[in-house]
Structures are given as structure tokens and as C-alpha cells.
Write a structure and sequence with these properties.
By secondary structure, this protein is an alpha/beta fold. The protein has four helices and four strands; from the N terminus they run E-H-E-H-E-H-E-H.
């Protein structure tokens, strides 16, 4: 049986969406990943583009509010930004809540290529850290 992980961020637009896609793509045999935000917005088109560069299609994912997961259980709940950690100090559906923080690529400034470079950097950090983090133990 697959373990369930929920990635949380403030707007469920960038980091949590990318984390969901990365975990389902690289760890799909072991984990089923979901994402939500303390405030739902929309999936950032830049996040969709940088994920497509890895062959991961998140274009059908949608931004979800944490309330959509009321009553569900998860093996791990991972916050990816400080704001979500502060606003969600306790999530009843999570056996274990952890924080693994990453920079917000949507705050990048400069040319489009400079902004996309920041999205790629954060994506690549997330790929390395989250896959290692989730592969390191399933906390049954």
C-alpha cells in the first residue's frame, strides 16, 4: 500500500504543486502525493513550464485549500514555506508534520529567463531534497 504525503504552502501555486508532481513522478511506487494551501489561488504557469522540462505534466493539477482534505489521513504532512508552518501548526490528518523549506520562486525578479532560472533552481533543490527525504523512511 502506498503512503500518503500532503505538501502545504501558502497559495498552493508553486512549491507545493511542484513537490506534488515530483513525488508522484519519482516516488509514485511508494508515495501518493497531494498538495494544498492555506489560501487556494492558481497553479503558476512558470511552475508548469519548469516541470514540463523534466517530462512531468502538472498542467491538470489545481490549487486546493487545505479544507478540501478535512477528514483525510496522511502518513506525512510537509510544509514548504514558513507561512504555512505558522498557519498550520497542527494538521489532524497527518501522522507526522515536518517542515522542509524552500525559497519562493515567484518572488524572483529580473528578465523572464532570470525568473525561470530561479524556478529551475528551486525545482531542482526540491527534487533532490524531497526525494531523498521521502526515500529515507516511510514512517509506518
Amino acid at each position: 500500500m502506498k503512503h500518503r504525503v500532503l505538501f502545504l504552502c501558502t497559495h498552493n501555486a508553486n512549491r507545493s504543486q511542484m513537490a506534488e508532481g515530483l513525488a508522484n513522478h519519482f516516488l509514485g511506487g511508494q508515495w501518493e502525493a497531494f498538495s494544498a494551501g492555506t489560501e487556494a489561488t492558481a497553479v503558476n504557469p512558470r511552475a508548469i513550464r519548469v516541470m514540463a522540462e523534466l517530462g512531468i505534466d502538472i498542467s491538470n493539477q489545481r490549487s486546493k485549500n487545505l479544507a478540501e482534505f478535512d477528514g483525510q489521513t496522511f502518513d506525512r504532512v510537509i510544509t514548504l514555506c514558513g507561512d504555512a508552518t505558522e498557519k498550520c501548526p497542527y494538521f489532524v490528518g497527518g501522522v507526522q508534520r515536518e517542515h522542509v523549506g524552500f525559497d519562493d520562486p515567484s518572488r524572483a525578479t529580473g528578465t523572464e529567463e532570470e525568473i525561470m532560472a530561479e524556478f529551475r533552481r528551486v525545482r531542482d533543490e526540491m527534487r533532490q531534497e524531497l526525494t531523498a527525504h521521502l526515500s529515507g523512511g516511510t514512517h509506518e
